Amino acid sequence: MGITLTAVDLPEDEDYSVYDLGSHEFWSPTNLISTGESTIVCNISNSSDENGFSSSMSAFSDSRPSSRGSELSEGAPLLSYPKMSKLSNKEELWVKILSNWHDLAQRDDNLVRSLVRSIPTTLRGLLWRTMSGSIDLEHKNRGVYETLYSQGSPHDEKISKDIPRTFPQDPLFCEQGSVGQLALHRLLRAFTLLDSVVGYCQGMSFIAAHLLFVMDEEHAFWVFVSLMKQFQLSGLFANGLPLLRQCLYVLDRLMESHLPKLFSYFKFVGVTPLLFASEWFSTLYTYNFPQSLSFKIWDVLLLSPPNAVHFMLQLALALLKLCQEELLVRPFEEVVECLKSKGQVFSAELIFRAVDTVVL
Fold it and tell me: Residue 131's closest CA among 160, 94, 165?
């Protein structure tokens, strides 16, 4: 359903490059900017590893980069996080784990799923980049992001309308023309030029913004690309919303088999998955969920591209299971509102315990 992105090394002495996106060649820029060795903003001091390490949001708040107003197309990526000068013992242990992540991930799914639930906040950005495979894309497509966002997109107006609605209460995105808003616009613009077939659709901005909470702008772009291509989630936003429709249909069938009492009641009052789960799926559980909970959900979601949709459905069923008794006594209007607010009520521990009981 999705289009697999195959990253290719950029030629050093040519003024063009081709990006092999499966059977589709979406973009072939001329005068490609060559950056040589990219600067990893958050490297550990004295480390020879090329992988970057993102800091916590509080660290960013203390040293926020200045905004350049509305200059979306000029200069280097705006949003970056400060360097980590010293690691705790737990962080050092996790650096070793991540350096052998791919070998570990192939051994025991349950072990890995349990392991990621203890990731230090400061290394979450690196964990997501490692699990998503975006680090390889970064290294093999140097200069591509800057070249993309430096061009105008036919989706710019639509993106501009959605950005003020994306996490408007968060300090990173609350101010018009802030560093966060500009970075978000540039990231989304770049993707629409990379994949003009999918383009831009509501929901994308929440996913991109969620990435910007924990990693630099360019790193966030390549994780976003990986989610759309290698995780094959672009169907959530492509013309006709094929993957979203499929997820809603499958959830309805899963409710019928796993939660028959709730399924029958929903039929009686006229509640369908479209009314509550479309937001869950199209924003990857970032809308109406606390940031801390969404982070933990993504720690598991990013574990394996083939299992991402499976986990999304498993999580939806777990949430319904947790609030089933309460929903059975509520009228139509309250059922929908209740489901939209439950992400704010349940703890991550309770939700993941429920997920572990759901066998699809």
Answer: 94
